[in-house]
From TrEMBL:
UniProt domain Adenosine deaminase: residue ranges: 14-211
Keyword Oxidoreductase: no
Catalytic activity: N(6)-methyl-AMP + H2O + H(+) = IMP + methylamine
PANTHER family, sorted: ADENOSINE DEAMINASE (PTHR11409), ADENOSINE DEAMINASE-LIKE PROTEIN (PTHR11409:SF42)
GO molecular-function term, one example from the UniProt record: adenosine deaminase activity
GO annotation terms (biological process): adenosine catabolic process; inosine biosynthetic process; nucleotide metabolic process
Organism: Sinocyclocheilus rhinocerous
Family: Belongs to the metallo-dependent hydrolases superfamily. Adenosine and AMP deaminases family.
The keyword Metal-binding is assigned to this record: yes
Keywords on record: Hydrolase, Metal-binding, Nucleotide metabolism, Zinc
Name of the protein in its database record: Adenosine deaminase-like
Cofactor: Zn(2+)
Source species, domain of life: Eukaryota
Lineage, highest ranks first: Eukaryota, Metazoa, Chordata, Craniata, Vertebrata
Length: 219
């Protein structure tokens, strides 16, 4: 479709983007590239939510599961992160805070350190965008993983030239088994990790109370 004058105006307007989950910002084009690389993974599975389409919250998280299978190596992450940054820049974003949950994948040799390191490598002088990073904690993985992630984020805070600025708490709040029975993702168990993060100078971004009565509130 042709861009209207207004489209151009809004695209060129300098913007800040403060809430971008890396794997939630994958474009259709990038998805296509990923699917071509691993076509066996996606038969009959929902891989996108089209604009205007209404979806339940848990369906969003199903899409994340598919994306996580498609993006499971350093090479994939580098490709996705570069594309996401490029696309935000093309959209007039001048300051971008990306957040992402570092993952470990034994089969591909991916480690949580390398995951963050890879995002750091995306810095490109020729693209006019300032990119910072929030290390995300997936609440479903419980307090020990949360604490380890905070330690990792702290290491990067001290050594990453200001690229790592904070910690994000996220993860599917609709997973009933976790939030109601095991309760590992309950806010009260994560509080000490969050306090540690705050005390070491990480900024905090928290997803809270997205669903009713699933106990992700702090009390
Ligand atoms: C809709 N509201 C939301 N509520 C809570 N967590 C969300 C979210 N949207 C995204 N995420 C978090 O971001 C991850 C995908 O990106 P990364 O793999 O980290 O880059 C999801 O698995 C979830 O943990």
């Amino acid at each position: 479709a042709m861009d209207t004058e207004a489209d151009l105006f809004y695209r060129q307007l300098p913007k800040v983007e403060l809430h971008a989950h890396l794997n939630g910002s994958v474009s259709f084009e990038t998805m296509e590239t990923l699917i071509k690389r691993k076509p066996h993974l996606i038969e009959h599975r929902m891989t996108a939510i089209l604009s205007g389409q209404r979806r339940a919250l848990h369906e969003c998280f199903q899409v994340f599961k598919v994306i996580h299978q498609l993006v499971d190596s350093e090479e994939d992450i580098l490709m996705v992160a570069k594309a996401v940054i490029q696309e935000f820049a093309a959209d007039g974003v001048k300051y971008l805070e990306l957040r992402s949950t570092p993952r470990e994948v034994t089969e591909t040799g991916l480690t949580k350190q390398r995951y963050i390191e890879t995002i750091r490598q995306c810095k490109r002088e020729e693209v006019d965008i300032d990119v910072r990073f929030l290390v995300a904690v997936d609440r479903r993985h419980g307090p020990e993983v949360a604490m380890d992630t905070v330690k990792l984020a702290e290491d990067f805070l001290l050594s990453s030239d200001g690229i790592v600025v904070g910690l994000d708490l996220s993860g599917d709040p609709t997973e009933i088994s976790i939030s109601l029975i095991l309760q590992v993702g309950h806010g009260k168990y994560l509080l000490s990790a969050l306090e540690k993060a705050k005390n070491c100078g990480l900024k905090l971004a928290l997803h809270l109370s997205e669903v009713r009565a699933h106990g992700n509130v702090f009390y």
